[in-house]
Amino acid sequence: MARLIHRGAEAEVYEADAWGMPAVEKRRIEKSYRHPELDWRIRTSRTRLEARILMRLKEHGVRCPAVLDVWGDTLLLERVSGPTLLDLLSRGRREKEGEGLAGVMEDLGRQVGLMHSAGVVHNDLTPLNVVVTGGRTCLIDFGLGEFSRSEEDMAVDLHVLKKSLEALFPETAGELFERFLRGYRDTAPRPDATLARLEAVERRGRYRSWIG
Amino acid sequence: MIALGIESTAHTFGVGLATSEGEILANARSVLKSPEGGLKPGEAAEHHARNARSVIETALREADISLGDVDLVGFAQGPGLGQPLQVGAVAARTLALRLGVPLVGVNHPIAHIEIGRLVTGARDPLVVYVSGGNTQIMVHREKGFRIIGETLDIGLGNAQEKVGRLLGFPFPAGPHLDRVEGGWVDLPYTVKGMDLSFSGIVTEVERRLKEGADRDDVAWSFVEVAFSMLAEVTERALAATGRDEVLIVGGVAASPRLQEKIRTMCEARGARMLVPPPEYLRDNGAMIAWTALLAYAQFGPLGVEESAIKPRWRPDEVEWKLLGPEELRLILRDRS
């Protein structure tokens, strides 16, 4: 039996091997509270959507896991190795080695900007869903992702990230997010409009503010 | 201390009596049933004005007390429909003035949650509030309730009424829809992150029925899809907040099929589902009376000039503490 790497509310991720290449299998969990036909329809359509999103991102040069195969409710994805941004930030805080982190945040900003330029929103952009390899960030888990170019959806991505940084690293969150924005402005489709929208979202104070 | 609470946000004119010990002494009501379905604000207001006096009297009789025993008058200040809300506000102001007791405005969704906590013993649960006009998933955080997911268009109860009307069921359609047995028909399933949308399903139901689809199949599938969506966002919210109790409140929460879905989901996650009995799920005066005591303990009396109705008052706009019975007793003792 393959080793379980992660179990979320929606999917299980197992270690896998694709012709000698390290991979993961992401399988959407059956929900016993849903009618079986409905459940299957939802799991397969979301799996296909996630695959389409990842492929679109690859075309636009966004770092994310490559899709190796799709069948039914399962995705075979390239395995991305490295600590998550959450690990890295927690460690950085302990060891007071802040300098490298600024570059990582700026790189993350560029990736998220590119993602938005590609017409994709992540919808769960927390430091847990960013893997860092050699100072370069890679976005993972597009399970809630959507194709969208709406200012509101893009602003919610930024809001979720900002709130989670504030909750986890209250002393440095402001600085980290500023660094992130520096990169984001480079590659995002309409950074000024999105940041204005972010302010509106914050004033409304609703979207996922339970994080903080 | 005894509080009298008035509920009048929608169809129901309710009057409840509660003590600061958490005892519900009375829960009387009169509900407008319009034959053609739908809610006309003017009609509801008229119904409430006509029945206010007799419902108040019924509540006092039920509790076996007189008006002079009332120490506090609370009313649902919002959210809700302007005209019916106004009737309750006027009745409450008049009573408070006449009795010379404090007036307290209550947020209707918070009242649903607080009566739920009182009667189920839930401590700090994930709340699923599902009624005609509202569908919200909330948790309490330091300063008040936070809405972490909600409907982007109409409430689930509202969707039930629309579908019920298409199928010829009387108001309220929920219990009728719940009992239909049928087969599977493909309907849109619209979950966006933590949010839900129901209007697309209603449109599709209408289209399917026009095409001649089996009515039972459509009704059964509608309930299946709508409740599954709610169970899914609830599960996501549970995972994200790490709570282990789910409190479901609001009129739609009385549905056995909904309860079964949420319970199945909770069991799979090792969480506990809590549901108040039906008389505290639907709109009622007891929840307003009890929550008025909690609000009075936190904010003191409401001036008449602050007592204007708030038809769009969201629960997350209220600074609110989760008080235990002992804290409530202590605060109220210090106030008197």
Short description:
Chain A is an alpha+beta fold. Chain A is 48% helix and 20% strand. In chain A, the strands form three sheets. In chain A, strands 1-2-3-5-4 form a five-stranded antiparallel β-sheet, covered by helices on one side. In chain A, strands 6-9 form a two-stranded antiparallel sheet. A two-stranded antiparallel sheet of chain A has the order 7-8.
Q: Your description of this structure?
A:
- The complex is a heterodimer of chains A (212) and B (336).
- Helix content of chain A is 48%, strand content 20%.
- With 212 residues, chain A is of the alpha+beta class.
- In chain A, the strands form 3 sheets. Chain A has a 5-stranded antiparallel β-sheet, covered by helices on one side.
- In chain A, α4 crosses α6 (191-204).
- The longest helix of chain A is centred in the first third of the chain and has 24 residues, at 36-59.
- The radius of gyration of chain A is 17 Å and the shape is globular.
- Chain B is an alpha/beta fold.
- Helix content of chain B is 46%, strand content 19%.
- Chain B contains 11 helices and 12 strands.
- In chain B, the strands form 3 sheets. Chain B has a 5-stranded mixed β-sheet with strand order 3-2-1-4-5, with helices on both faces. In chain B, strands 8-7-6-11-12 form a 5-stranded mixed β-sheet, with helices on both faces. A two-stranded antiparallel ribbon of chain B has the order 9-10.
- Chain B is globular.
- The model of chain B has no long low-confidence stretch (mean pLDDT 94).
Keywords:
heterodimer, A: 212 residues, alpha+beta, 5-stranded antiparallel sheet, 6 helices, 9 strands, 48% helix, disordered C terminus, B: 336 residues, alpha/beta, 5-stranded mixed sheet, 11 helices, globular
